[in-house]
Amino acid sequence: MENAELHVIFGAGQVGQRLAEQLAAAGKRVRIVQRSPLAAAGVEVRRGDASDRQVCIEAAAGATTLYHCMNPPYSAAVWADALPRWMDNLIEAAGRNNARLVVLDNVYALGKPAGHLLSEDSPVNPCSPLGEIRARVAQRLFDAHRRGDVVAMIGRASDFYGPGGGSASFMGDIFWRPALAGKTVRVPIDPDAVHTYHYIPDVAAGLATLGCAERSAYGGPWMLPCTPAETMRTLARRCAQYLGREIRLTEIPRWLPKTLGIVSPPMRELAHMRYQWDEPFVVDDSRFRARFGVAPTDVERAAEKTVAWAREASR
Q: Residue 1: its pLDDT value, please?
């Protein structure tokens, strides 16, 4: 392992930890950098804050690829402060260490689909404060790539579900706590809207693929692998088969997030992002599949793994 490529992951949340596992299983040396303590078998863990440029530069020493998997609290004010600083610091760290930079991003910068699929060719057209911030930060990255300051790309995904899904996921804690107890799950979005839900291990596998890709793959965005879009209710029914009981879903009143947003930044931002369930919100990953030959996990297998994780996490 001493001569293996070093891959450094900033952020060990719902995607970062799975990415570390996949890279380690592929024989890579893996270093995770995050602020809080973490125990991770087979990888090096270094405590550090990506807001500190020197921390980023030192943590990236000797790396082949850096991965940006961090996500701050769900607040436009926090994002506007943290995201540009993190991006600038990682661009500097990657550039100084001659490392590639792979950034995990969502699809907020693309705005409303307006009847189209979301793909690598979708125009940047944000329609929310969070989307505007994401668009500006992505532009910083691509500008730096064009200048030759860094070799970089973005991997985009829609909403997550699966093992490791936490409070930031609609199918994380707020979903599984009542579902496992046999109670109705109250969701803040339309459970019958057609929407792309990315399985977390597929997101990690996609990032690992990008991090090991040849130079010609860099310089733009990629849509990470996903299964065909479906409704949350359909996804919940599939999970229910492995849970052994019905999972009942109900949408909370649409006015509630707006009202709570007066005092709660996450609820305020959620109200702004509600447009993603007002029309079919479908990601097209065909270009990724064609280029890299990577397909998403079978939906039945994903549901089975998700339920097993949820049960174990609840103990």
A: 56
- Whether 14 is covered by a domain: the verdict is yes
Residues ≥6 apart with Cβ < 8 Å to 73: 265, 266
Q: Give the C-alpha distances (Å, rounded to integers) separating 170 from 44, 99, 197, 217, 301.
A: 30, 34, 10, 31, 20
DSSP state of 140: H
Name beta bridge partners: 221: 154
Give the percent of the chain with pLDDT over 90.
Answer: 82
Distance CA 46, CA 151 (A): 24
Q: What total of structural domains would you count in the chain? A: 1
Range of the domain at 215: 6-159+198-227+280-297
CA distances (Å), origin 164, targets 5, 100, 126, 215: 26, 26, 28, 31
Tell me: the pLDDT tens digits for 184-224?
999 989 999 999 999 999 999 999 999 999 999 999 999 99
In the predicted model, what is the mean pLDDT of the chain? 93
Rounded-to-integer distance, Cα 183 and Cα 213, Å: 45
Q: From CA 215, how far away is CA 37, in angstroms rounded? A: 34
In a domain, 268, yes or no: no
Mean pLDDT across the stretch 224-238? 98
